[in-house]
Amino acid sequence: MTTPFGMRATATEVLEGTDLTGRRALVTGGASGLGTETVRALAAAGAHVTVATRDPRAADGLVAEFPQVRAEALDLADPDSVRAFCAAWSGPLDMLVANAGVMMLPDRRFNAQGWETQLATNYLGHFSLALGLLPALREADRARVVTLSSGAHLRAPFDFDDPHFERRPYDAFTAYARSKTADVLLAVGIQRRWAEYGITANACAPGWIHTNLTRHLDQATMRAFGAMDEHGELVTPDYYKTPEQGAATTVLLAASPLLDGIGGRYFEDNQESPVVDGGPEPMAGVARWSIDPVAADRLWEYAQPVALGALS
């Protein structure tokens, strides 16, 4: 499908004229960066928005700005935190935006379940959260799930043989890329299983933006991305977006009437992406391995026992 919005459209522009009064949204990582702009656009359109963040105080500004915004504690890498959050949720949920994430941790780390931290946070935490909130999503009318991926998914398929780098040397970028592939497969899996409940799910890449997601990147990597000069100062290349522009595709998928009934797809720059072969060359598009229904089912079956155990 195509939309009338280009890569420079902002989240506010995408939702112009959309009335979300009475709708309820949950945005993980909504206290900073893209999450903040997502919350702001949804709330400005009338939605009641819950900001799920490790430190709810970080959302004090948003809570003060919008009377229908509240903040709750959630640590996606902590099963106890996910379980408590889901148990405390009451009522329908119209929009679940899986926005929170970590990127390129310099060393291999694990959560309490033994999952590599990037995969645990970016994928498993959101998978567990979605499973725990399924009753709330079913209770809503035509609920939507949005998973934030990245163009990094083009560089690595999910490795079912060694997902946590137990046998191969840890590589920070590969770990991140795998987790972002998993996020697309999560959207595909949700669409395949929950469409019968009226729930749709899509994934997106927000593009290149200066946010605190890059806090673990060293200066050499930032310079390679063209985002830092030789003096260690941030620069903004032409292909970078503002946070308001980066959040546009997220809110398009979460709330625009243009996406009614559409699911299981991947978007970037406010457009559905073409399917490409993953590898070192493509700079845009969605890799075939990330929308493969067989891989989506296999990942679901691999993660579900762990996620259900975390929720029990």
In spatial order, strands of the major sheet run: 3-2-1-4-5-6-9-10
Class derived from helix and strand content: alpha/beta
How much strand?
5-15%
- Name the overall outline: globular
Number of strands: 12
- Secondary-structure element sequence? HEHEHEHEHHEHEEHEHHEEEEH
Assembly category: single chain
Query: What is the helical fraction, as a range of percent?
Result: 25-40%
- The value of Rg in angstroms is 18 Å
Question: End-to-end distance, in Å?
Answer: 40 Å
Parts with pLDDT < 50 across at least 5 consecutive residues: none
Characterize the largest beta sheet: strand count, sense, and whether it forms a barrel: 8 strands, mixed
- Discrete helix count: 11
Give the rounded overall mean pLDDT: 93
Your description of this structure?
- This protein has eleven helices and twelve strands.
- It is of the alpha/beta class.
- The strands form three sheets. Strands 3-2-1-4-5-6-9-10 form an eight-stranded mixed sheet, with helices on both faces. A two-stranded parallel sheet has the order 7-8.
Give the secondary structure arrangement, pairings included.
Elements: H1 11-14, E1 24-28, H2 33-44, E2 48-53, H3 60-65, E3 69-73, H4 79-88, E4 95-98, H5 117-132, H6 134-139, E5 144-148, H7 172-194, E6 200-205, E7 208-209, H8 219-224, E8 240-241, H9 243-246, H10 248-255, E9 266-268, E10 271-272, E11 275-276, E12 286-287, H11 293-311
Helix pairs in contact: 4-5, 5-7, 5-11, 7-11
Question: What's this, in brief?
Answer:
This protein is of the alpha/beta class and 312 residues long. The protein has helices at residues 11-14, 33-44, 60-65, 79-88, 117-132, 134-139, 172-194, 219-224, 243-246, 248-255, 293-311; strands spanning 24-28, 48-53, 69-73, 95-98, 144-148, 200-205, 208-209, 240-241, 266-268, 271-272, 275-276, 286-287.
